[in-house]
Every structure is written in C-alpha cells, then in structure tokens.
Write a structure and sequence with these properties.
429 residues, alpha+beta, L-fuculose-1-phosphate Aldolase, 2 domains, 8-stranded mixed sheet, globular, lyase, Aldolase, metal ion binding, aldehyde-lyase activity
Amino acid sequence: MVKKVNLIHPRNQITTIIDRIYKRGMTTTSGGNISIIDNNGDIWVTPSAIDKGSLRASDIICVKKNGTIIGKHKPSSEFPFHKAIYEARPDIKSVIHAHPPALVSFSIVRQIPNTNIISQAKHICGPIGYAKYRLPGSNDLGTVIADEFNKGYKAVIMENHGVVLGGSDLTDAYERFEALEFCASTILYGTQIGTPKYLTDKQINEFEAQATGVLPEMDSTEYQSDEVEKRREICKIVQRACQQGLMIGSYGTVSMRWKNNNFLITPTAVNRWNLDLDDIVQIKDGKREAKKTPSRATWIHQEIYNRNPNVNSIIMTQSPYLMAFGVTGKYLNVRTIPESWIFLQDINVVKYGNHFRKNNNSEMVENCSTALIIENDSVIITGDKLLQTFDYLEVAEFSAKSIVLGNSLGNMVPINDDQVEDLRKKFLS
C-alpha cells in the first residue's frame, strides 16, 4: 500500500491488506473477506474458499455493476452483505469482514467494546453498531448489516460471527479494523489483571483539540547523507513495529536525534504502514520542515532530547499487553527475568493528560526512564540506538504479556532484592 491509494489497482490493494490481516493473526486461512467498489460501480472482492495466506492479485474477483462475474473463482460467500452495504452507504468505498480473536470474544458474549479505552480510537472507529445473528452468506444477513450501516455506523459487531467495517477507502477501513481489534484486545488483557478504566468524552475531546504543527516552518531544509540514513532507519523500525503488533497504523511516533538537539520524527495523519522517507519531518533549531506536520507528541520528544543528552531515540506507541497495565493502572513489575530488569528496571505510570500539558511534564522528561506508561494513551521507550530502543519495547511488551498470561496460574514471584543487587553489580556497575 502507498499513500496515493487511488493509483493502486483494487486487486493489489486487497491482496496487500488480506495478507497483512492474515499474518497478524486476525483471520484464518478460510475466514474473512475484503471488497472495494470502484468509480464504475464494479465491486472487487476476495474469492470463496481460497487460502488467505497465499492470495494473488489474479485471484481477486470483479463483480460488474450488471452482475457479471469476472475471474477464475467464485466471489466470497459473504458478497451479499458487501453489496448491501454499498447500496445503503454510497460514501463507503471499501468493506472488511474478518474474525479477529478479540472482537470475536465480544461477539460471542454479545457485547460492544468501549472505544473510550484509548485516546484516539473513538475518533477513528466512531460509534459501533450491532447486527443480530443471521445465516452466513444469506440476503437476510445483508439486510441486518445494511440496516446498521444505514444508522451511520462504519463498524458493526456481528453476533456470534465477527466484525464488519467500512471506509472511504481500504486504508481507512483497515485503520478502523485494526484500532477496534486493539481496543478489544486491550480490554480483554486488562481484565486479566484488574479493572479497565475508560476516558470521558471530555478527555478525548481535549486530546483531539491538541494543536498540531505549532512549530514555525524552516525557510529551507538540508538533507545530508547521515540524515537520510536516519530517515531510513525510522521507516524500517515503524514497519517492523506494525508487523509485530507493537504499533497500529493510526498511532505511533518514532524519532531519532540527528545533531545536537535537532531530530527527525514521524508525521501526524500518515498511516504508519505506509510511511516513507519523504514523510519524516526534520526538526531543527525549534523549527519544522516546511509543508509537513510532525507528530502531536513532537514537543515531548523535543523536551526529552533537550534534557537527556544520553537519549538518542524515542518510540511512543501502543502495544496491547503494555496498555493492559496502562488502562488498569496496575504496576508493571519487570522483575520477571534478568533481561527485563536489566533493560527496564522500573516502569512508572503517568496520569492521562500530562502528555499534552506542557507545564506539567517533569515526570516525563526529566531523569527520563527507559520506559514510561501514559494512562489510556501510550508507552514511551527511550534509548541510544534506535534498534536498541526497539529491543527495549519488545522486552517490555514480552514482560507485560508474561505477567498477563501468568496471572491465570497464580501470583507472580519476582526476582528478590538480593538477586537484583547481584544483577546491578554485574551488569550496571
């Protein structure tokens, strides 16, 4: 996928996204389907009973506006509800249906995930609809789903079935799908260790009202070879984080110190899966690269670099197991295995809202810890080399996952003080 999605053939768009969904473990070999309606009213859709792990562009079916089917396979058995959605909502140009585990958990207990669990999800997902169970592949199923979309929803939980989402294009639909599954996962993991807490609409509105691009623009920008190489590093790490489920397309900020306190940072309003070198924003002498809007968290990164000369890279992201601690306020004790404590030591939690109030940020930017969780928002990881910082993120997420999963077995028994002191002497002295 690239940003100019309209220049990519629907067949290629669909195969890219279904491959991404399958590799992320959000659907099975036989499950799920994707469609795009083009400007002619023709619908491009995944085929029925073809391996989702090896789909090629030539496998995608085109159902012409007059009903003629073009392709070597049958269209998805769920094609009727795709067609019904497009007829009900001309503004929707792409539909995703899948059976991601967390959302199916909500589907089978007949609940709707509360997207106020994290800051940006309500804005991305919108209100969530609920469609009663009907026979898969039936026109009746198409009717009940279309009825929900007619109410203005772009995301609908399907009772005892899964989820269906629409978007202005396939990137928009996938962002909604990914964000909703992330919310569901975070809520589920949070309930394993405590009680999830939700943001109020007022708090979310304050988050959305944050100023963007407040730094003045540079008159001109120099692109030196070492600067270009750092852009490449950022893009590679962002892609890797997305592939491993440590970042979602609609949220995540990565930066690298370039020279002195000047740095490079990811932009706002650009899908992280599609990030390219040209998207990265240079921040120099308190000014931003012209005609680009850096992340809304730019000021946090700037203050961390200004006050912490040993920090040369920062990752600010949402990963599901770390955010389970972020939404419950439970203490993440990383005395799980030696590596976790050596790399991370202590992970503190900052109250939601402090990350965009510049006058109340000492906890975040002074004596900056390796890892810090912001309630209902994100985790900040700092380090020297960017790959090292990414490693710290992986270790933190693995540690959080081990605690969440282990909680069903019994109480965690951490490494004791004497063992920690031995680690301190050998590895940190």
